Amino acid sequence: MNRKELLEYAIENDGQYSRMDIMLEDMMEMGLIRTLMKLRRADNTYESTLSLVNTVVDEVAKAQLILDRIRIMYGGSEKNENEKLCEIAEHLGVAYTPKIKEEL
User: Fold this and answer.
1) Could you report the per-residue pLDDT of 15-72, keeping only the tens digit for each?
2) Tell me, what DSSP letter sits at residue 54?
3) Are 9 and 65 in contact (CB under 8 A)?
């Protein structure tokens, strides 16, 4: 089973609306924002920073999987994502060429 098949199976197995409730709860409980705030306030010791960075990486992975399941449930958002990337590039005054994104 590949990544996309696994995410689709998770959606089908739990039911679309039940899955959405679970994903919303997961996003609310997610420690990403809390960890980013701790990282901003962290003393600059290597050990504390490394630990928080590792937690951020883990939380980002969890968030990405939730967002990918939402994208599967409601359709791709590549066009929207490219529009937002173009807005960022325009704001920064740099050129950006949208690329076709790989499958989830």
Assistant:
1) 666 777 877 777 776 778 888 888 888 777 777 788 888 888 988 888 888 888 888 8
2) H
3) no
Structure tokens at 34: 């809390």
- Residue 3's Cβ-side half-sphere holds a number of Cα atoms within 13 Å equal to 9
Cα distance between residue 68 and residue 70, in whole Å: 5
Is residue 103 assigned to a domain? no
User: Cα 24–57–36 angle (5° rounding)?
Assistant: 75
Residue 86 lies in a domain: no
Domain count, the chain: 1
Residues 6+ apart with CB under 8 A from 16: 73
- The answer to whether the predicted template modeling score (pTM) of the entire model surpasses 0.90 is no
